[in-house]
């Protein structure tokens, strides 16, 4: 648990604070889960407070209420023993590029929903409250699209706003695909293989292992006779929720509202850290309280922090211990 | 016109023979059409006889009755100004790889027919006679699939045999596609562009310019808002027919049957030569008479020719002049 330990004026906080510093996150947290399991008893707690997210803006205090997980996979479809001349074979044998295009195109239906079997079975729906709070954020879609270099409209799963799509809904994204002749001019071949890299963004309570199994089924169903499929599953990150109606999150929100003197809103983040391990192994709810901004340029040259926000964060922490002590966390 | 000029015993053939040697074919025949146009009057003729194809087998004499044309195209779909992080934008903006996969998958319908507008409008259907004659060829599909390295079944447009598919039906074949992260591991990006190279095999009377226009329409219809498409059209080859029921082809067949002493069957070929220019500019029917075999290894080390077949070819030519003289070519 990384937390700002600001004295609240009293000699000691009204709750027991245990501090854990995760120093391995930027290199994949390879040993973190094992450490948590080994030290589970020492780390036992009622709430996990994490300070590794950002606020919407300096004048829009907010808490993160969930991080999407990530399942990266690769797939290769192989057909002929070598590239074939399309004059002799074209139209008569399956082309791995055609099969791959169909497989990739089939990942979404007409509502831009992901078509993997059982994909949405464990997706927690957005509550009306969450949707209302997301809608309250001063989101400038045009500005956001301009950052993406898009001149056209936003695009995604039907029935959801842009922020809902990128925060609270699972996705399937093709990150790369290749096969056949990619150089200048023309080469009339049926290539021997087609490749793609895909990543699934997952939301609570989707389990990467379930989605990987569903992807294997999906690929098997989309591999025509005469081609063989090979699948790679890379290390996954589980999604992790921090529900806005949890007692712990409500306590955190009150603390932050006291420090900032205005309504605290909610965001979600892409997420790639070990937060899901913390929640699962320590079996306690997550509360994200942090006062960084996207403009702090984390990990980039000239990284910075706003001192006045840091002080508000310290104040929030001081209130938080009181709020948590007063809350019924059981 | 490349032809074997064998004396038939008489002092002079009963028809006027004009000989044209095309020495530029292997480098794309860049100047051939202009030459034909310039010398059209000198080259005026009733029949064009070409010796540039192969027979089915040494013991299965056959004539080629058509060559497929070829239209190679390229398409690039471009979206964001740079690769975007899929954690921040995934699910909210169009991904060029998705759009490309859909565009490529959409090229065929469930019957494996090409979905370009008007694509089949000018396709000459196979006659029952042609289908019967193709079915007579001793084609071993298993052996052919083994050459392609395929363990599974043949695959292609429904309602047609493998030979019909590769000889007499137009196709759309993806020859290459690429975009995004193609290296090791995973990179959770929405890439800025997706690329594909496609070639259309065309049959008479499809016009490459019509198909290129239809492809532009098709791509425009499949390019979602927020992406832009760029199309490249490479030099095309028109398809060229030599209908089996034409008087000239029938005369050629009789000549070949006299020389070989058995029924002459019909094949078609992929084709990439300037035959269509000859037929169009000289406005005369094509007759393909040649006695090469695939096993001659043309253009490869140890290229060879079977002397006994060469002599049969010479004999065929001698009979051909008589048959053409006796035929009503008008």
Please describe the structure with a list of short key phrases separated by commas or semicolons.
3-stranded mixed beta sheet; 2 domains; elongated; homodimer; 32% helix; 11 helices; Aminopeptidase; 4-stranded antiparallel beta sheet; Alpha-Beta Plaits; 11 strands; 330 residues
Walk me through what this model shows.
In chain A, helix 1 (32-38) packs parallel to helix 10 (275-282) and helix 9 crosses helix 11 (307-326). In chain A, the strands form four sheets. Chain A has a four-stranded antiparallel beta sheet, with helices on one face. Chain A is of the alpha+beta class and 330 residues long. In chain A, 32% of the residues lie in helices and 18% in strands. Chain A folds into two domains: 25-68 and 239-326, Aminopeptidase, CATH 3.40.630; 69-123 and 170-233, Alpha-Beta Plaits (2-Layer Sandwich), CATH 3.30.70.360. The interface between A and B is large, with 79 and 79 residues.
């Amino acid at each position: 648990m990384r937390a700002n330990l600001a004295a609240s004026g009293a000699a000691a906080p009204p709750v027991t604070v245990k501090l854990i510093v995760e120093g391995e996150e930027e290199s994949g947290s390879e040993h973190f889960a094992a450490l948590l399991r080994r030290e589970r008893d020492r780390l036992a707690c009622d709430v996990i407070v994490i300070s590794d997210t950002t606020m919407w803006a300096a004048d829009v205090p907010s808490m993160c209420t969930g991080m999407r997980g990530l399942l990266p996979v690769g797939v290769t479809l192989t057909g002929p023993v070598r590239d074939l001349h399309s004059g002799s074979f074209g139209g008569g044998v399956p082309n791995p590029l055609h099969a791959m295009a169909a497989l990739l195109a089939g990942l979404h239906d007409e509502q831009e929903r992901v078509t993997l079997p059982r994909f949405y079975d464990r997706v927690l729906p957005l509550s009306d409250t969450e949707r209302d709070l997301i809608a309250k954020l001063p989101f400038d879609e045009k500005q956001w699209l301009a950052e993406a270099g898009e001149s056209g409209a936003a695009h995604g799963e039907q029935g959801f706003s842009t922020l809902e799509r990128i925060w609270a809904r699972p996705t399937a994204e093709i990150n790369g695909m290749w096969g056949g002749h990619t150089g200048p001019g023309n080469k009339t071949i049926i290539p021997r293989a087609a490749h793609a890299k895909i990543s699934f963004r997952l939301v609570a309570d989707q389990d990467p292992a379930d989605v990987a199994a569903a992807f294997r089924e999906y690929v098997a169903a989309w591999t025509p006779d005469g081609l063989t499929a090979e699948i790679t599953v890379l290390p996954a990150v589980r999604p992790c929720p921090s529900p806005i109606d949890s007692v712990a999150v409500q306590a955190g929100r009150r603390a932050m509202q006291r420090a900032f003197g205005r309504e605290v809103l909610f965001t979600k983040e892409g997420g790639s850290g070990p937060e899901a391990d913390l929640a699962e192994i320590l079996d306690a709810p997550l509360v994200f309280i942090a006062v960084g901004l996207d403009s702090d340029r984390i990990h980039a040259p000239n990284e910075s922090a706003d001192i006045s926000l840091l002080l508000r964060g310290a104040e929030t922490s001081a209130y938080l211990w009181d709020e948590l002590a007063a809350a019924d966390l059981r």
